[in-house]
Design goal:
Blueprint (H helix, E strand, L loop, with lengths): L1 H17 L3 H5 L4 H9 L4 E10 L6 H5 L9 E3 H16 L4 E12 L2 E10 L3 E9 L4 H7 L7 E12 L4 E10 L1 E10 L8 E12 L2 E6 L2 E5 L8 E12 L5 E14 L3 H4 L10 E16 L8 E11 L9 E13 L4 E12 L10 E3 L14 E3 L1 E19 L11 E18 L15 E11 L5 E9 L4 E6 L5
Parallel strand pairs: 1-4
Antiparallel strand pairs: 1-2, 3-4, 5-6, 6-7, 7-8, 8-9, 9-12, 10-11, 12-13, 13-14, 14-15, 15-16, 16-17, 17-20, 18-19, 20-21, 21-22, 22-23, 23-24
Length: 485
């Protein structure tokens, strides 16, 4: 309540500052003059000031970093409206706010102030870990026979806005099927011009039940009789970020990974680590270019995104492996009308060497290389390409103010959007080793099609309900927790 009161007082202060001659704003005698000013849309306007309200925790500089409109510059009115709409999307895609609204306020016929009003989300989230260890819900439900031992549980502390500077902190401990510890911290800007950033990540996990290979394009898991730990993995990364413009990012990553495998694993797959022993360690160096201009990063209906990266595995003479990986993901979203939009995306990856340790396995069935209709399969190889398409119709677009039953303002906004989608995906995996047990789906064109319902709700959470059929004439219902691309 205090936050709302302070916000209202600030709005009144701004309006009083913008319109010092309050009699001119409110006097009955000047209603006709005010109406004539409002009915005449100016061709050009000058922005004098930008005010931000509602940012109780987030620093103003973080919000202003996303605003392209500048003060003291004269804009064509139509161009200004386009810039305001784009700036609203950029601020919202920080994922710090439930709502963002930028309003132009006229002081003179060609003089305006901009009022940026935001409603903040809840940033500190004690997170209970309770999820499936498998690739997707369908894999667990069908191939793993709804085995509850394949559940991960634990606790995680997430802070999405440390110090109000959009810094991310994540600390977690996980038990169950995969035991893990994680520490992540990212600082998007370390300089005054807000262009350079750093991120750090450390993870450690162990597994007693391990995927050791695939047969008939299905994952094969193994546990030894003593139920010992079969895999221990430690990795750490340092990532540098450069943001030269609003939509373009550059990432440089250096890291180290060490994997130790129980000897019993090699009885199931002698080539699990390519004969390099039971322990491999290697350094990693990578570069990624990212262009992201979407209206909503969680579930886009307009815009485009592109990720292109190259990674070198093994930099030092003692590193166990020496390989390169090149990958690309891209998606384009077309808004056809207020109800319809079309989404299309492409994902591709390629290793240079003939074979890789099984810990670096790639292919269709592993994120982000999914062909709908093949969620129950893994199609592994050194090169993979997937192209996805969805035509979506918006059935519902509602929002509810539940402030009367929810005392916390950060949770008082409840959106609900529902889309009907028709889908067609296809892809190809090149297995240079031509493993006979997986030959049914490798080195051949794969496709799947179907329909689904996409539910987008609180804090942009996505729930997908789809029925898909693949070109093996296998049809299955699938349930997923994220947008397909």
């Amino acid at each position: 309540m205090k936050q709302i009161l302070r916000r209202h007082i600030l709005v009144i202060f701004i309006l009083a500052w913008v319109f010092p001659q309050t009699g001119k704003l409110f006097a009955q005698d000047d209603d006709a003059e005010a109406d004539s000013v409002q009915s005449t849309v100016p061709t050009k306007v000058t922005v004098n000031n930008i005010f931000v309200i509602g940012n109780e925790k987030t620093r103003k500089s973080i919000i202003l970093r996303e605003i392209n409109v500048q003060t003291g510059i004269q804009y064509d009115w139509d161009l200004l409206i386009e810039l305001i709409e784009a700036d609203q999307k950029k601020i919202y895609n920080l994922q710090l706010f439930n709502s963002v609204e930028i309003t132009p306020l006229f002081t003179e016929p060609e003089q305006i102030e901009l009022l940026v009003s935001v409603t903040e989300r809840w940033y500190i989230i004690p997170n209970i870990i309770f999820n499936l260890a498998d690739r997707n819900f369908a894999e667990w439900w069908t191939n793993q026979d709804k085995d509850l031992s394949r559940v991960n549980f634990g606790a995680r502390l997430i802070h999405n806005n440390v110090g109000g500077r959009n810094e991310k902190l994540r600390i977690g401990a996980q038990f169950g099927f995969i035991r893990a510890f994680e520490l992540q911290y990212s600082k998007p800007y370390i300089d005054r011009k807000q262009r350079h950033g750093l991120a750090f990540q450390l993870t450690y996990f162990t597994q007693k039940n391990l995927q050791v290979k695939s047969e008939n394009n299905k994952q094969v898991f193994y546990t030894n009789e003593a139920e010992e730990v079969l895999r221990q993995n430690f990795s750490t990364f340092l990532r540098y970020t450069y943001r030269g413009s609003y939509y373009n990012f550059h990432f440089a990553t250096i890291g180290y990974n060490r994997t130790k495998i129980n000897e019993d694993v090699f009885t199931q797959n002698p080539n699990y680590l390519l004969g390099l022993g039971n322990q491999i360690g290697y350094t990693i160096l990578g570069y990624t270019y990212r262009h992201d201009d979407r209206d909503n990063v969680q579930y886009a209906t307009e815009g485009e995104v592109l990720n292109a990266s190259i990674f070198k595995y093994g930099l030092l003479p003692n590193d166990a492996i020496n390989d390169w990986e090149i990958s690309l993901t891209a998606a384009k979203y077309f808004k056809l009308s207020n109800r319809f939009h079309f989404a299309t995306g492409l994902s591709a990856t390629s290793f240079i060497q003939q074979a890789q340790p099984y810990t670096l396995v790639r292919g269709i069935g592993y994120n982000p290389y999914f062909v709908r209709g093949y969620e129950l399969n893994v199609i592994e190889g050194q090169q993979a390409i997937v192209q996805k398409n969805s035509l979506r119709y918006k059935i519902l677009d509602l929002s509810f103010n539940i402030g009367k039953i929810m005392p916390l303002e950060e949770f008082s906004y409840f959106p609900l959007r529902l889309f009907l989608s028709t889908n067609f995906d296809h892809g190809f995996v090149n297995d240079r080793n031509k493993i006979p047990s997986n030959a049914r789906l490798t080195n051949t064109h794969l496709f799947g099609y179907g329909m689904g319902l996409d539910l987008v709700t609180f804090y942009d959470m996505v729930f997908r309900f789809e029925y898909s059929v693949n070109n093996q004439n296998e049809g299955t219902f699938f349930f997923n927790f994220r947008a397909p691309f």
